[in-house]
Amino acid sequence: MLQKLKRNPAIGKLVAQYDQLPKRDQQALLVMSVAILLAVLYFAIWRPAVGFHQRAESSRENAAELLAWMNANRTSIQALAEGGGGGTTASSITDGRALMSTVTRSAGESGLSLNRFEPSGDSAIRVWLENVSFQKVAAWLEQLSGQHGIIVDQASFDREDAPGMVSVRLTLKI
């Protein structure tokens, strides 16, 4: 293989030019070539391999921690998976009155003041909130869904002048 490379006209020309250089220039070119080869090996092979190894090791440690946590909380996780979430479920809210009571109580607990609310059939309620924090509304809706099984049937959000503030019209149902 080395013989084939030497027979190549371009390689032969480079070798001839190298041979015509003074000894000091040949040594400098050799040192520079070795330095470039080492830099390429480090930046193109070693460093990416070490980075991949570190990321894989970190991922493995995170997975091991998650597994340990899941094993430690196995009964709680199984209870959640089977639908026994521990809080009030949608089945405990049987009519519009209980829905209205739950919605108004949880809004107050979340720091929201309902401007207006009215029943909408047997299992739904319409709610209006004016100039409230979008984050508070989102957290409140998540709480209603997660703890009480109340879902958003319709929603309308209008942006207010202040950043992060909205006016909201919702239809919530069980």
TrEMBL record:
<dbReference type="InterPro" id="IPR023229">
    <property type="entry name" value="T2SS_M_periplasmic_sf"/>
</dbReference>
<keyword id="KW-1133">Transmembrane helix</keyword>
<keyword id="KW-0472">Membrane</keyword>
<keyword id="KW-0653">Protein transport</keyword>
<protein>
    <recommendedName>
        <fullName>Type II secretion system protein M</fullName>
    </recommendedName>
</protein>
<feature type="transmembrane region" description="Helical">
    <location>
        <begin position="28"/>
        <end position="46"/>
    </location>
</feature>
<keyword id="KW-0812">Transmembrane</keyword>
<comment type="similarity">
    <text>Belongs to the GSP M family.</text>
</comment>
<dbReference type="Pfam" id="PF04612">
    <property type="entry name" value="T2SSM"/>
</dbReference>
<keyword id="KW-1003">Cell membrane</keyword>
<keyword id="KW-0813">Transport</keyword>
<keyword id="KW-0997">Cell inner membrane</keyword>
<comment type="function">
    <text>Inner membrane component of the type II secretion system required for the energy-dependent secretion of extracellular factors such as proteases and toxins from the periplasm.</text>
</comment>
<dbReference type="InterPro" id="IPR007690">
    <property type="entry name" value="T2SS_GspM"/>
</dbReference>
